[in-house]
Design goal:
It is found in: Cytoplasm. This is Phosphocarrier protein HPr. Belongs to the HPr family. Keywords: Cytoplasm, Phosphotransferase system. This protein is α+β, with helices and mostly antiparallel strands. About 30% of the residues lie in helices and about 25% in strands. It contains three helices and four strands, in the order βαββαβα. Strands 1-4-2-3 form a four-stranded antiparallel beta sheet, covered by helices on one side. Strand 2 and strand 3 form a beta hairpin. Helix 1 packs antiparallel against helix 3. The longest helix is centred in the last third of the chain and has 13 residues. The radius of gyration is 12 Å and the shape is globular. It starts with a strand and ends in a 7-residue tail after the last helix.
């Protein structure tokens, strides 16, 4: 099991397009992936509706819990997507 924290740095946070891109990454992996705001409810990071309901804006610190064989590869892909601002350039 792996636990990680990361801050959203893209201008609009987890809006619809960014969430769809995140789900596109998380669903490629077999490990269980949970995410949520620090100190808040954890949700299934492979469920677009659950992630959208987090209403995570720019500057929100998120916690991820990954559990499974490919958890390291999954985290690397998730962190790369977030750190690249979901390919939005802002």
């Amino acid at each position: 099991m792996r636990e990680e924290k990361i801050t959203l740095i893209n201008k609009l946070g987890l809006h619809a397009r960014a969430t769809a891109k995140l789900i596109g990454v998380t669903t490629r992996f077999t490990c269980r992936i949970q995410m949520g705001k620090i100190g808040g409810k954890m949700v299934d990071a492979k469920s677009i509706m659950s992630v959208m309901l987090l209403a995570a804006s720019n500057g929100t610190e998120l916690q991820f819990v990954l559990d499974g064989e490919d958890e390291d590869q999954a985290w690397d892909a998730i962190a790369a997507m977030i750190n690249d601002r979901f390919e939005e350039g802002e």
